[in-house]
Write a structure and sequence with these properties.
57 residues; alpha+beta; 2 helices; 3-stranded antiparallel sheet; Ribosomal Protein L30, Chain: A
């Protein structure tokens, strides 16, 4: 598992980047969610790495 926190807003971002953030379960700034550490979630996190903070849980 890993904890993902949204640290930058989604306003004005690419549609695919907003979709990745939504797919991770994040809705608002400074919200933290726990997601499974799978290749698909890793890919989403890597795509929006400039918007999120990741902690290994």
């Amino acid at each position: 598992m890993m904890k993902v926190t949204l640290i930058r807003g989604m306003h004005g971002r690419l549609k695919s980047h907003r979709a990745c953030v939504k797919g991770l379960g994040l809705r608002r700034m400074h919200q933290t969610v726990e997601v499974e550490d799978t290749p698909s979630t890793r890919g989403m996190v890597n795509k929006v790495s400039y918007m999120v903070r990741v902690e290994e849980a």
